[in-house]
Design a protein that fits this description.
With 200 residues, the protein is of the alpha/beta class. It has a single domain (4-197), classed as Rossmann fold (3-Layer(aba) Sandwich). 32% of the residues lie in helices and 14% in strands. It has a 5-stranded parallel β-sheet with strand order 4-3-5-6-7, sandwiched between helices. It has a two-stranded antiparallel sheet with strand order 1-2. Strand 5, helix 4 (126-135) and strand 6 (139-143) form a beta-alpha-beta unit. The chain is globular and about 50 Å long.
Length: 200
């Protein structure tokens, strides 16, 4: 059993969000993060691995000022978390259909420059990942048990389909990013609640 003080938030809070509940499909890319398969066939992700990867992702993101970060979500359950992450941190975001060329074609109305990309689900966000590869910027991706890891620099295992799970991931990333960058000193200074990031 994982000791709570080793985790970013209490184990129960992770469990309540369903962050560890995977799918019935598992890829070889995600095998290392899977703790067990339930009798109903759903794979369960390892909470400790999720926690470690959130820390790694924050360390990676914190090397970049907010204006160099682009957060992307084609999946509708990720729109609000991505938008709130952008609002809290000041980064750029793209919620909805990602037109190819956003990073590569300066003539596009939606053209943006970024130095690192954070995607909600490697499969629906594949156009964004392809764009990132063309311009040679690193990609951090939230990956469920059924995701491939091609073109991804840092895999962040989690349930990337549930509203509560996505809300929790982006809320933690935003708060820890601001702490790491020295914008806030203590958790209490982070003015957003977890509910602000989760769809009702």
């Amino acid at each position: 059993m994982v000791e709570d003080q080793e985790l970013l938030i209490p184990n129960d809070d992770y469990l309540k969000s369903g962050i560890h509940i995977g799918t019935k499909f598992r890829t070889k890319h995600m095998a290392n993060f899977i703790y067990k398969t339930r009798p109903d066939g759903l794979s369960v992700l390892n909470i400790q691995a999720i926690d470690e990867r959130i820390r790694l992702a924050v360390n990676f993101l914190a090397q970049f000022p907010p204006e160099d970060i682009l957060a992307v979500s084609r999946r509708e359950n990720g729109w609000k978390p991505v938008r709130m992450f952008a609002e809290a941190t000041g980064c750029k975001y793209f919620a909805g259909r990602y037109p190819p060329g956003v990073l590569t074609n300066p003539n596009l109305r939606d053209f943006v420059e970024a130095k690192i990309m954070l995607v909600t689900d490697a499969w629906p966000d594949k156009n964004a990942i392809a764009d990132a590869q063309k311009v040679g910027i690193p990609v951090i991706a939230l990956c469920d048990t059924n995701n491939q890891a091609n073109g991804i620099d840092l895999v962040m295992p989690c349930n990337n389909k549930g509203k509560k799970s996505l809300g929790l991931v982006y809320w933690l990333l935003a708060k820890l990013y601001l702490k790491q960058r020295g914008v806030i000193k203590k958790d209490e200074e982070f003015s957003y609640q977890l509910d602000d990031f989760s769809e009702d």
